[in-house]
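In this supplementary section we document a worked example of the pipeline. Step one takes a protein sequence of length 403 as its only input; no multiple sequence alignment statistics are reported here. Step two produces a three-dimensional model, which step three serialises into structure tokens for compact storage. The input and output of this example are shown verbatim.
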Amino acid sequence: MTSRVGSLPLAALVAATSAALLLAAAAVGANQPGDPCGTEGATADLNGGKIKCVGGAWQPSAGGAPGTPGTPATAPAGSPGAPAAGAAAASIKTAAIFTSVGTVLSQDTFASTGRQVADSSTIRLPDGRLRIYAFVSPDGIRSATSTDTTGTAFTADAGRRITWAPGGQPRAVVLADGRVRLFYLDAGSILSAISPDGLTFTDEGPRITTAQAGFEPGGISVVTFGGGYRAYFSNLEKPGVRAERVARTATSPDMLTWTVGPIITGTAGSIKDGASHPFAVVSGKTIALYFNGDRSSFYGTLRATSTDGITFGDERAILKGAGDPNLVSLPGGTTLLYYGAQVAGKGFGIAVARATVNPVTGQGATAKAATATVKAPAKTPAKVPTKAAIKQAAPATKPTGTK
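The serialised model returned by step three reads:
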């Protein structure tokens, strides 16, 4: 089934898959985000936060204190991913990088009735089409492949991608040899699986555990930077639970063994007001980190940049009401941003926006800043001295004792 519809992450199957939107609640019989509602604008209490009736469905509402996840304000139905503007501009700078195209995935794409398609991750296939991996309630991790190279219409692939566990928050990368590594969440850890075709995967085991991270980790984003692999991840957001948005970085020589690095948020880091569900892209020597955040009256996708991968600045509001960003570049250089958004009458799905400028710098022409392939770190070749250098290094006089 082909679909053109949109999302904000929530996983009703298990806590791990709920990560990015904090939408479901634990109270039995209570209204849940995504459930139908009859009175537009009505609000209801939910586990210390609030939900609001918008476009015929309950949504998270900005009823909590600023900076407290679990109470995000989403864009009105029919206008997912509106560029940041208005009241948000008073408290945070904005960047006009993306233009909304529309929604691409919903429960209809997968013939599901779970009202949740969330936590998308996109790769580019050899023929130019795109494949999106996402959590689909109640199935688990599914995928859909675009009908052409524009990445705006998708058809579901048969079956589940992770068949041995519920799985949540998938992040896929294409390796240099064409295989696909899929990072996912299960049992309090970030794990990975490998596939020759991006459809049938074999488990590789844990990559980062709760003990290593210092908190239960959410989905991971991996880039090649500084001669190795650098990753970003945040604490796992849970249904109806307010918690500080904590994110940190990690490094690896092979994408399998990771050394957890510093926290980059809050008092310990440079993103003072927190970040969750980070996605990194690289252009030259600069990393741009896209993430979910709450900033005064703004909830949505933000972006900050860094030249060392640890200290970030120049924070900008990107798309109000959007969640769980992931970016991919097309062969011509255009970059697409897939993000979570509400789909009127269908719960949550995935929407897409197109970059009009470089998504890392926010200036100039679009650049291939977010390819789906994570390249192997370049190896520094051993220096071979030239004949001139050898001659110059030779002793000017014969060593003592030679004839």
